[in-house]
Queue: 3 jobs
Job 1
Amino acid sequence: MCPKIRIKFAIYPSGIWLWRLIGMVAGMGSAAQTAINGHLGVVLGSSVKAAFISFLVGTVTLVIANLLLQPKLQIVQGEHGNPWWMWLGGVFGGLFVAGNAYLVPSLGTGLAVVVILVGQMSGGLVVDQFGLLESAKNPITLLKIVGIIVMLIGVGIIRLL
């Protein structure tokens, strides 16, 4: 007779698994976007043109969605105004999309996504460690460093295959 194996999960706030699932689906969409932009970059002969087309379509889509869903949308300035760096999101987004379109033809979609993910995780650790961009400080731990190392080993394994 086999002994029963019980796995005990930590208690999470209500709905956390739904949000994790949504995050996974969003990540899958990001991988699809990487492949699409990479192919578009090849077709157009330019990763910058691919990024422009991607952002043009995204901008038009967001404008239409906002007009339909938020007809009285206003940019709310805080008590002391918003920080200057909050407007850099679009710049980083453009660099991200152009970088994807550039990397996919060279590395392939899978490896490009993993390399970008390692960069995102590393950048996220730096932001958390120092509380950059008005985020809460969340110190880097040994486990987080091990996680990045495991991801790098995974990149190496993917590259060798």
Note: DSSP finds five helices and no strands in the chain.
Job 2
Amino acid sequence: MENYIEDIKDLLFEYVPSVVTALVILIVGLFAIKFIVNSSRTIMDKRGVDITLQKFLLNLGSWILKILLFITVISQLGVATTSFAAIVAAAGLAVGLALQGSLANFAGGVLIMIFRPIKIGDLIEAQGEIGIVKEIEIFTTKLTGLSNKEIIIPNGSLSNGNIVNYSTEGTRRVDLVVGVSYDSDIKQTKDVLMNILTSNDKVLKDPKPSVTVLALADSSVNFAVRPWCKTEHYWDVFFETTENVKLELDKAGIEIPYPHRVNINKTE
């Protein structure tokens, strides 16, 4: 029994200092990484580095530093780094196959940073989703949807798919179709619709808004109503114009046709 106690004491004296030292290194290292990341962010802010690139580089740098810290901690615990490296190398193929999706996402994030098709704050449509770019991380890109939901898209899919960026040009065209009765006067209708557009402060003067006859449909004459606005005013212009079309056409006595149901009763 005494031999067991002595063995336990020997083990404690042998390993406790290493464990304590490793914990100290871990705690100090995490604080140091946080300090380095915050300092780097401050320097980038002062030098005017793009916020999208900032977050990506800081995220990447944080992961690299944490991996180095992990290797340092396990080496302090007595695990030979050469043996650890050999184990990682031997398992590299299996890990690579298991994480090939993650590696593709990482590569996609790098491509997004290089070619810059999007940046934080852009309104984009990709992978069947529409939202404002919130953050571009190492493996994923986060969007804030139009209804304030968070959308997460893998960078691999994002970089390999179609991206519609509504913010690049700074302006957007609102496409509306307004149908009026065949009894309506075309010139009067165009004047009313154009007046709706020109009286809205959010509608740009250049490019000029347009109102044109789009189609002679089955039960209506359809007009293409095309105001231009700044990207951030798109939905304001869309909803305001839609509402004002109904109000102003009613004032002018111009009918907006709607489906009618006819009941036919057969009597024998």
Note: Strands lie at 123-126, 129-136, 140-145, 150-154, 163-165, 171-173, 176-180, 210-216, 221-226, 228-230.
Job 3
Amino acid sequence: MRVSTGLAAASVLILAGSAWAQEAAPTPAAPAVVASAWRTVAPENLLVIDTSKGRILVELAPELAPGHVERIRLLAGRGFYDGQVWHRVIDQFMAQTGDPLGTGEGQSPYPDLKAEFTFRRDSQTPFTAVAAPAGAVLGFLHSLPVQTQPDAYMATTADKKVHAWGLYCPGVAGMARDEAPDSANSQFFLMRQAYPSLDKRYTIWGRVVSGLDVVRSLKASPNPDGIVTGPDQMTRVRVASDLPQAERPSVQVLDTASAQFRTLAEAARQAKGADFSVCDIDLPVQVAGAPAA
């Protein structure tokens, strides 16, 4: 069963432990955003997931996981995900899909993927820092929360890059797998809440930029294994660049390089104090174009 060990164990922990099962405190309202502060998500990096509960838009992150992003693009382009169900959904945790059998036992006909739990970041990577606790650096690569080594370490490495990895905040998209690290294939999950124990254990390939409310509305199981009876369904999944222009949504996200983002991040830090987490920053988003199919 895909993700039958690591994530299953994690689901028990999140159901039993109150620290991560609680809703995050609301972040301060975003300041007014000037036109130049918006970043348009490239159509080839926008996954459009239409479901029986509404539309979910995921920004893909090829900088973090190029192999997994390519797999998602391939399967979406071939209609592999159309009609598939959210077979495993655990409240306060995550929603899982991508199994053509709808049982947790299936996968695509393509080979399993090599794990991409971490990546290498250089000075050209579009990374914006928001905090630096104990020698680490927390920030954003586009819409994804990331932890990395400081830039100063780049001078000491042969490739002039440093170690970095995505963080499992709400909306982050991860790839399900079995016990073996290199066993991800087609099943994926979207986080309903933060769960940091998954960091560096499951490949992150994107983040929900619109529709987190839809993810949280998907029918959840009352059982510890999360298997859903009468699950919700994905009706169509496509990369935006594969859709006709008339059916293609347009998404703009607050640019993390902007002054408006710095103001937003500082407000979140001040509001949370010592409890601040990069997961406390919600990026404003504008969506235009075609409605859900």
Note: The first helix runs from residue 6 to 16.
